[in-house]
Design a protein that fits this description.
Bound molecules: zinc ion
Radius of gyration: 14 Å
CATH class: Alpha Beta
Shape: globular
Number of helices: 4
Distance between the termini: 15 Å
Strand content: 25-35%
């Protein structure tokens, strides 16, 4: 993670590739997917953690982490690792829905939320087609592509 001034959250391309494959697999049956990105603070985020989840396919299209999934998330990390970002797919355009805003998956200042459009296909061009939000002062703020976003999250 990145406190202000310490540089962006760096995510390894392989983590996004794992997310893309997972989301596209869910998309085949009309379902969204959700996951968390983790790593050791100060090092590139190198883990995608996919918790047990239950999705309702389109047209309703929703996904929730099950109680077992909550447990998955609790035990997935080593003592040194932390969750930095959440990432989930939408059937269509990428944006934070009211449900996404209310979802307390990550609550720490500077947490990142990535929304992937078109059932994961949007990740074929990295984060450029995705919506990216950062949690500041208890609010999720959208970061359009550009320097402001690059200062918070980078893929390399
Ligand atoms: Zn959403």
């Amino acid at each position: 993670m990145s406190a202000p001034g310490t540089g962006p959250l760096v995510v390894l391309p392989d983590v996004l590739e794992q997310a893309r494959v997972f989301f596209e697999d869910r998309g085949v049956i009309g379902c969204e997917g959700t996951a968390l990105i983790a790593g050791v603070p100060g090092e590139p985020a190198d883990r995608l953690v996919v918790p047990d989840q239950r999705a309702t396919p389109v047209p309703r299209a929703s996904v929730t982490v099950t109680p077992r999934g909550d447990l998955d998330l609790l035990v997935a990390l080593s003592d040194e690792q932390r969750y930095f970002a959440r990432i989930h797919s939408h059937p269509g355009l990428a944006f934070h829905s009211p449900t996404d805003d209310a979802n307390p998956v990550l609550t720490h200042e500077g947490a990142v939320s990535i929304v992937v459009p078109f059932f994961g296909l949007g990740l074929r061009t990295g984060l450029a087609a995705c919506a990216v939000y950062v949690l500041t002062g208890g609010r999720w703020t959208e970061l359009p592509p550009g320097p402001e976003r690059d200062a918070v999250v980078a893929v390399r």
